[in-house]
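Deliverable D4.2, example record:
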Amino acid sequence: MQKIFRMSKNLVIVESPAKAKTIQKYLGKDFEVKSSFGHIRDLPKKGMGIDLATFSPDYEVSADKKKLVTELKAAVKKADMVWLASDEDREGEAIAWHLADELKLKPENRKRIVFHEITKNAILKAIDNPRDIDQNLVNAQQARRVLDRIVGFEMSPVLWKKVKPGLSAGRVQSVAVRLIVEREKEIREFVPKASFKVDGVFLNKTSQEISAKLKKDFDKEQDAENFLELAKTTEFKVLNVETKPGTRSASAPFTTSTLQQEASSRLGYNVTNTMRLAQRLYEEGYITYMRTDSVNLSQEAIDGAKKQITSEYGAEYSSPRNYTTKSSSAQEAHEAIRPTDFTVKSIGDAQLNRLYQLIYRRTLASQMANAKIEKTVIEIGNAKLPQHFEAQGEVIIFDGFLKAYGIVKTEDDDEENNEKLLPKVNVGEVLDYKKITAAEKFTRPSARYTEAGLVRKLEELGIGRPSTYAPTIQTIQNREYVDKREIEPQTREVVKISLAKDKIKKEVLEEKFGGDKNKFVPTDIGEVVNDFLTDNFKEILDYGFTARVEESFDEIASGDQKWKNMMTDFYSKFHPRIEDVEENADRATGDRLLGVDPKTGKNVHARIGRFGAMIQIGETDDEEKPIFASLMAGQNIATITFEEAMELFKLPFDLSEVDGQPVSVGVGRFGPYVKWGETYISIPKGEDPLSVDQKRAEEIINEKKIADAPIATYKGEPVTKGTGRFGPFIKYQSIFVNVPKRYDFENLSQSDINELIDAKLEKEANRYIQQWEKEKISIENGRWGPFVKFGKAMFKIPKKKDDSKYDAEELKEVSLDEVKKWITDQDPKAFAEKKKPAAKKAATVKKTTTTTKKPAAKKPAAKK
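Output generated by the structure prediction step:
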């Protein structure tokens, strides 16, 4: 094999530079390995880019990839054979196909190789077993991309027209939002039911404690109290002791979904972070391919795990086995996520190592013996009592796989079910009670989704595939349809009745409930969009339909269905629905009629407006314009009460001046604030702006003064510091300077400040090659070379007539007219005058349209 390759030039193309680096060291000098940096082609960013008559996509090389494609074409010319080595899944197959098509590779000069781990053996084996591009896999990927583009491009404009401009819809993202919205509605409608749970602590003859639970709960307080009265004079005995052997078995090795879930519960990683780290582990050769829904292990892996387990723990801990995948569509990559080498127990990078350890231990545990346990159940009571107590405990006889992996509780586990070791007791033995407590407990609604819980649910419903979970979860947050805001707990009274030393004591305690952190909560706009889509596009939002679409993609991948036939069938039903909804559906504002304002007699509505959720007094078509108030953080239009809404109209309110500057308290887009002169100061999280009086406002202003006080001077001018959305900064004149982590931000020295500002000023001085401030045009030095900036827009600098690039000295001589020409060549409308009167007219027309439709839309709201 080596002799053949030495004669020819081999170009290997992979999709990431890290992967290229790892593969290059295995293949040596006979191969040149280059990276395509992901897809080189895609659907255009502007416009749909699909011929809806034939569903043919109009792919284009993205602007940022044109230079790369030129370089790849040059490398292809020098090579005798091109090896397309992108990932072993549909996305990877599509990347290989786009490369072959764009680089014009002939079948005889190209080979497709796949491997699900980047090890020397796997790479050499792949080169020995090349194949051609699998067009079925490519078509499955094209079908997903085209169908999702059509859904997004046709449904989103309907949302702009019927809900709010700038919104978007998507096949999988909309279903994920629906799950979160439905769970939130379930929580709102949940009516907690109270019952009394009875716990007892008993002592045996050697005064060892046994904790037990009564086998039945009481619905009524009186019944619980009567039971304690009866227990007061009862002699408790051990009625039965049962010991049963049991086993615990290890979970299967990781799939993409289970890795995301376990990394969330054990390491606290979000889905995106987990996939980023897993990608690096794969590319650097530590683990097998990280996008898979298979739990299968290769024989090589099973043998490697057995060897490691036997040497580290002993032969009795080894129990080689293979797992079968439940999902019939598990075919993306044919092995679970596992280490490529079991002798590598840890790696240098701390963050990567945490995830690697999780994968390593899970895979090892899956090949280890079951844990043996002994479960003991003790029944405690007396024939006089209507119910008996039960104590449960267990002891591990042989730890088996637990030695490698341990036990972790899932979010569904009962917090109180902490089984423990029990003391030895005999049947008939008399026990003393130390304390028996009947505590009022309320039933709880289903928990809100965590990222891991949402992934589990999507997988359970057959929605999406391993590659889609992370981007879906990221998208619904980026679109601001859901967020992870903190839900403040509510307080309620609970009754606790205790029996100790023959005395019964009753207490009324306060408990907090309903609070949540780091769980998904729909936003107001998320709920309104979801309700509109479920009302008008039932099939698209249907869980079964979304799963069936995934099955169709699987059929295309296996060659059992033609992708354009699938698209034709889908679009023939989908497009008429779009037209119907656009024409006939009412606008959606989430409007709730809360009541009538006692002062004006006008209706009070909670609804979505142009800038988000708001309260409105009066109607849009009234002669006198309605008045509005923004909702505060933690409030939403679906649950806000009339009283809470009316409180919002007390904002903003004025207070007395401070240092000659007016002071007011209000609430804006970024939450409640104190306004002092022209300075807006955020009121601390959780503090009610209506409770801010003169004294508290002055405290907030003084805190701001201290925070804004100069920390040093630079050339006689004050320097202040603060923390913004991009991290810590110092400010000198109107210049903001980011402070890197290598500096101690809390203890910046004068030399640190001089160094930071000097570097920033030098960078700014070198930034402009030419600047025309009045026209808001400049030629600037950028990270990738000089560019033209007009307002906030950036434009490329074209090449000269001889096809060479301008250097900095030549750009200093370019005229303003020439630069304007460069801009208009790239954006013909850049300098077009905005016709203000026409814009006003359009706004009026919109208002009229809204007004004419309003009364019809209001009827259902009034019924509520």
